Amino acid sequence: MDPINRGSDEYGREDDGQATRPRPPRDPLAADLGHHKPAPVRTVRLVTGEFALTVNPVDGSELENCPPHERPRPPAKHGAAERAELARAAQPPVPPGPAQPRLPLLERHEEREQVVRLLARGRSVRLTGPSGSGRSVLLDAVADDCADLAPDGVVRLSGYGRTASDVLYDLFAAVYDAPQHRPDHDEMLRLVRDIGAVVVLDDAEMGGSELDVLIDATPECAFVVAATPDIPAPSARAQLDEVLLGGLDRSGGLELLERSVGRVLTEDESNWAGDLWFESEGLPLRFIQAGALLRQRDRMQASEEAFDDYGVFQEAPADAPFETGDGADVPLPSLAEGAAPAALLASRLSESARATLRFAVALGGEVPHQAHLPALVGDTHADAALAELAACALVSPVGSRYRLAAGVQAQLEASGYADTLQESALAAARHYTWWAGHPSVTPERVCAEADAVLAALDVLVPVTTVPRGEEESASVQLARTAAPAFAAGLHWSAWERVLRLGVEASELADDLGEQAYFHHELGVLALCGLQLDRARAELEASVAMRGELADKRGSTAGRRALALIADRSGTLQITGGHTPSGEEVPDARHDESVSPPGGVPAVVPRTDPADDTITVLARPGAPGFPAAKPRSVAGRLVSGTRRNLVAAGAGALLVAVLGTVVTLGATSEHDNGTPAEKVGVNPSATQDAQDDSLGADTPKKGDDSSSGAAATPTDPGPDGTYGTSDDPTATATASRQPSADPSGTRTGTSKPSKSPSASTSSRPTHRPSPSPSRTTNPSPSTSSTKPASPSPSTSPSASTSTTPSTSDSASGPVPTASGGAVI
Prior knowledge:
Elements: E1 44-48, E2 51-55, E3 62-65, E4 76-77, H1 80-89, H2 109-120, E5 124-128, H3 135-145, E6 154-158, H4 164-175, E7 176-177, E8 181-182, H5 185-192, E9 198-202, H6 209-217, E10 222-227, E11 240-244, H7 250-261, H8 267-280, H9 284-301, H10 304-310, H11 335-339, H12 342-347, H13 351-362, E12 366-367, H14 373-378, H15 385-391, E13 395-398, E14 401-404, H16 408-414, H17 421-436, H18 443-448, H19 450-460, H20 474-488, H21 492-508, H22 512-528, H23 532-548, H24 552-569, E15 602-605, E16 614-618, H25 633-638, H26 642-667, E17 712-716, E18 722-725, H27 730-736, H28 756-762, H29 806-811, E19 814-815, E20 821-822
Parallel strand pairs: 1-8, 5-10, 5-11, 6-9, 9-10
Antiparallel strand pairs: 1-2, 2-3, 4-7, 12-14, 13-14, 15-16, 17-18, 19-20
Helix pairs in contact: 2-3, 4-5, 4-6, 7-8, 7-9, 13-15, 13-17, 17-19, 17-20, 19-20, 19-21, 20-21, 21-22, 22-23, 22-24, 23-24
């Protein structure tokens, strides 16, 4: 039924009255131009230490303090069945086709018993032997013998390209059940101390102090470390017993060659094998490859009737007579071809097998998984190529994957397999980019191919160029796609390495957006390891780049991570006028806009009374300075930045200015004829002992009282008081002088009026201040001086002021007769 055009009442459905929408016509030419459903973004949330990590492939991973309800429970150990399943999954895949016969362990019984005996006593062993000496086969036998020796069983790990920290995390993942949880370093060390297992570490590349760290971190484990002689030896305090592994003797080499060929050797073949034993120093790998050469020679000499009798895909019985073809006899390989048989063996393989070898050479010896071979090679049956390579001993298992056997890489490069190095690496990079970004591929599967992905980047990153047109850099895209998968799969050593390769590739490709992403991820990774300085540098670089690109979402993610760093370090970091959380800081260009992390420096006097100097930069909690105590409200108000102190001072100054304006406006009258503007109002005159007046209008010697000019106050004398001047031009001179009154309301010849508190603090007094008294300025028409009246106001033109004492002036404003207030 059409979901858009519903029927009326068919199948019991009634019409709901809604109008049916006609279906738009479809254009077959524009079928692919519609809006496709966007591919789902694979985000994974992990718990690492005290953080919750959200792996976001779009804008960058986000880190936050883990909420209490998301904290994982203490991890529990796997059971026996789970350990067996994990051990089976850790083995390399079985090549398709008929199973290959397992060769016996020859001439290794003594070494095998010695290693098992040391492990039973709780001792750790270092098994040292050259590449191709059969170390992995011996470790398989030892693991079978020690299956029930430890409570946590046997743990098989690979040390190829791994550090001590990587091996410890692999050990934790193999023993504990902790999905989506990666403990921090300290918690991991605490958990692995409780592991009691026999740890079989093959292809170890660590030694010296790094191996000591591994042994010391796991006191309840017994290690079997297989390494080549070129790896640094452990220190003396590591207490590892050394077991040397050499080559086979001549009889053992001939026996291994016969078992590999599947028949008895002829006399010529035995002589040839003897020369090979002397040339290869008895390494078992050389005899297995020599057996592959003889099998190929047998197939070339076999007649067509032999294939008709036993079938094309059926091996001949071991007791079947050896038959040669009717053609010319195929000679035995030369001694040089037997010592370096890779080129000759590869020439007799299928085309898919040779193409696989080219990819392996381009990837630094890493053989892609057999599931990728059909897509890489272009043959649907190319997965069978792995079986051909394994049967010829051109590849050997390393952990859960295959690599080219020892010496095969150099032999193939000398034969011309490295001529298409960059082309093969580019094809592999494009394939892995598509595959790793597919939603159906889990992060664990991508981590299993981590070495091949990193090998492709190692080849392509140095030759990365700026893409032209719409073309994108293959190395940048591969790093961009694989990085979140490695993070989600908890393969963090590969995560860090691919991020650094991505930074280099994006710089060469001039891709600022991708470069910002890789720097962001490196900062998050460093923050997970509590490397705050390194994380801050990476995140600040990422935020700056995303700011240039106007990437708001990416910048927000970076500032959140920077805020978490500031919270961890206890300091406030400002980038571009914003806090790490994105809040704008006003006037962030000046240092005084932000308080120091330790608070405002305090002024502390010295303890020596003879020395009156002070110490300025002393902080609470410093030596000789008491710790900070809880402050009151007033204490909290006065403590702050320099900007707050300046603001408080400006407010106090504003209040003083407004008070002065109000006082002057209330006490002054704008009438030029009033004596209040001609006689100074500063109470600086002193009362005569023989007169009850203040003497303001008493003429002095030399005064010309008949001139009729009003006396004006002059500049203050030595005692700080204002005198009078008989100069007729004094009034005009005083009017031309600039006024010091901030309000600008004073006119005429009146001098600035100082507040009582200011005059009291600036002019010394020789006797106690009298009680507040009222003074009345006489009228200019009155020739005699009269005492002041006790009434508040004698005339409308009189200016009455109250002179407070020093204590009163310091306590607050004093009201005046006209309603003003003196501050």
